[in-house]
Amino acid sequence: MSEAPSEWLEAGADPFRESLLGAGEDLPERVAGCAEPVRDEPAFDPERIARLADAVRLPEGVRFGHPLLERVVRVGLAHVEATFVGDHPRYGTGNYANAQHDGFPPVIIAAVDALTLWGDAARAEALLAYWLENFVREDGTLDYYGPSLSEHGMLLTTGARLLERGGSAGWLGRHRAALARVAGRLVDLARRDGPVALLHGSPEADEADRRARYFHNNAWVVRGLGDWAGVLAGRLGRREEAKALRVTAGQLRLVLLDAIHACWPADPADWWLTPAVEPLEDLGAERPRGRVTAGRFGSYTNYRYWPELLSSGVLPRAWAERIVRARLTGGGQFCGATRFLDRLDDWPLAEHLDGLWRLGRRDDYRLCLWGHVFYHQGRGHLTAYEQVTLPPGRKVAEYCLPCQLVAVRAARRLV
Fold first, then answer.
1. How does pLDDT run across 281-295, given as a tens digit for each residue?
2. Using alpha carbons only, what angle is made at residue 237 by residues 236 and 238, rounded to the nearest 5 degrees?
3. What whole-number distance in Å separates Cα of residue 357 and Cα of residue 378?
4. What is the pTM of this model?
5. β-pairing, 333-334 with 337-340?
6. What pLDDT sits at residue 5?
7. Hey, where are the domains in the chain?
């Protein structure tokens, strides 16, 4: 098998972006012509996926601008049913089907978002109910070996999204206690020493030993508490509780923005935007050299910490734009897909896409969506692996559901 050109591996800028921006209706075809597609085995029997995809009921009046986009959505939603075992979550296939991965919060976060965006609130209710009953402990911690604090906030937003998109009052009455425990724990952590302070914790499962005051974690605590406050006030009439949560979230946001201002470089052209307050040497890390994806810590920053900080919506516009520029100038992207070391890893790409949409960067949004479809999903069967090589694309890590649902979630804004 041939290898990706060395200039792609070492590039600071996306080698195809400038030629593709503003491409218009022929963007999918032009993206597909940039390089060789991903070729590897499907995660599930294609005939089974086809049957499930054909049975998906999409909202009335939906019109897709490209026939492949509808197939991506149908196949992606079919993978929810293929991956879950009844209502029990699975992260993916192969090693990712092991029980230790079942409680990974991004699985339920992505599944509920995708299902509710495409009109299936009933299935989302069932899946989220099961998850809350089985993976939220009495003290508000999550039954998973390395949950990030950002995932706690995202769970609160996931509950709010479900209710905004058709979730019932009965569902809320039965399951609000679990979400309230999560919110209560976050408030306790923020006020552990009295005045509101940045939360210290794990940034994500694989890097759980690098605990620190991460910006993306705190940003999603702010967002999650604010969204849960909206549920308390709007659906439950608990306005005083909601006010108290909003006060905590607002104070935490101010502390967070002060910390970012103190830590990020004054030079707007400097693409290294550190993800935490602590000095890198305290985390056993160092500043990436040459490109952000040259090492492990920078790669995690590029593929997850920056996107989640961006998607939280708590940053001023100028700071959100800095994250996008850092990805584009620091070697963080290839034909719209997310770079990680010498490969692509797109399962958190939905967070970056959310940020692009908020910023009105529609051309970049569409490029990232189609780059994901052609260079992160298998040709023909459309299986989305957790990691793939740069073109010619082959699987590096097994199929996982959050990656499969990236394009499903992103496509809803375009139809």
1. 999 999 999 999 999
2. 90
3. 26
4. 0.98
5. antiparallel
6. 86
7. 1-76+301-415, 103-263
